[in-house]
Amino acid sequence: MPVEGIDVPDFSMDEKKHFSELKEKSPVNAVKKLMEKMGVNQRDAKYIVTHINVKYGQCNRCRFNTLDREYIKCPNCGALNFNWTINQNPSENS
Ligand SMILES: [Zn+2]
User: 10, 51, 80, 85: least buried by Cβ within 10 Å?
Assistant: First the structure.
């Protein structure tokens, strides 16, 4: 799936979960694993990791927080977001 000239691998749900957790812990490691496991080149791997949203629905550049698709350009600032639907936490209501 090409996004902005980047060949984005078809991530499974498990992989999405794995890489977004990895990004939170260590972006450098996430880039490495993308290259090793998914066969992504270094430039694309860096790009992908940079654009993975840490929090679902929230733009990773500005504070816009109602993104509603998985690969979406923020309507507010124009940044591309890999807005994977895995970080939703329904019990978060405090
Ligand atoms: Zn934004």
Answer: 10
For 47, half-sphere exposure in the C-beta direction (CA atoms, 13 angstrom radius) is 15
- 86: its two tokens: 């895995």
Task: For residue 77, tell me if it sits in a domain.
Answer: yes
How far is residue 7's CA from residue 41's CA, in Å, rounded to a whole number?
9
Q: Which domain holds residue 17?
A: 12-82
CA of 58 to the centre of ligand 1 (A): 8
Whether 19 is covered by a domain: the verdict is yes
Ligand 1 centroid–CA 46 distance in Å is 19
Q: What is the mean pLDDT of residues 6-15?
A: 90
**Residue 35 Cα, ligand 1 centroid: separation in angstroms?**
27
Cα of 81 from ligand 1 centre, angstroms: 8
Q: What is the pLDDT of residue 1?
A: 59
**Looking at residue 90, what is its pLDDT?**
55
Reported pTM: 0.82
